[in-house]
């Protein structure tokens, strides 16, 4: 990640005028406070934590990375994400009714969020229907009300966790390739199993 001084040393177009949008010293040119770009880790933390009713002040105080984020910069970045269709416009609203039916892609993304300890989600999946985070959380509760389906989901996740652990612990060499193949196979089979179980669960509601 380039800091202001590092970017300036590259003599990018824009000269020394801090108001020039091509000047790396201008925060608008790099999308963050004091010229620090938003990292993928910061964005994901921001996305999952705005799913709860936290204020921008709270988010600014708790966001990891010590990059000097402020409530204003957080509000600005969220607005930018919405403008670029990277985040539903109604993400922080309580809109629950009057939306299209849930798609299989949305349900699968919700399950992936649950299985990753609710620390990772792709909000772009929910942009077309303009889902709110509150609606997503309630949909997750609905999907997992089927205890038999929930057991399949969490059993599958445990199998994937063990396959990942075996891969991580295998030294480089032929055995590593075998472990990688086993991991990819477990991922593919697990996704198919959960998808079929989800469809059956919804059909029985």
From TrEMBL:
Span list, region Disordered: 1-35
UniProt protein name = Myb-like domain-containing protein
Start-end of Low complexity biased regions = 9-28
């Amino acid at each position: 990640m380039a800091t202001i001084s590092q970017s300036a040393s590259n003599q990018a177009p824009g000269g020394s005028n801090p108001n020039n949008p091509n000047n790396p010293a201008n925060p608008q040119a790099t999308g963050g406070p004091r010229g620090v770009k938003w990292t993928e880790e910061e964005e994901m933390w921001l996305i999952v934590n705005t799913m709860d009713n936290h204020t921008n002040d709270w988010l600014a105080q708790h966001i990891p990375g010590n990059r000097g984020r402020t409530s204003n910069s957080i509000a600005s970045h969220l607005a930018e994400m919405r403008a670029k269709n990277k985040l539903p416009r109604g993400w922080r609203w309580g809109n629950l009714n009057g939306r299209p039916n849930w798609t299989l892609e949305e349900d699968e993304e919700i399950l992936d969020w649950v299985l990753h300890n609710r620390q990772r989600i792709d909000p772009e999946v929910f942009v077309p229907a303009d889902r709110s985070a509150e609606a997503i959380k309630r949909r997750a509760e609905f999907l997992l009300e089927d205890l038999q389906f929930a057991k399949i989901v969490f059993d599958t996740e445990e199998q994937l966790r063990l396959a990942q652990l075996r891969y991580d612990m295998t030294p480089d060499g032929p055995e590593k390739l075998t472990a990688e193949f086993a991991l990819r196979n477990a991922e593919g089979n697990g996704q198919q199993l959960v998808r079929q179980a989800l469809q059956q669960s919804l059909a029985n509601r």
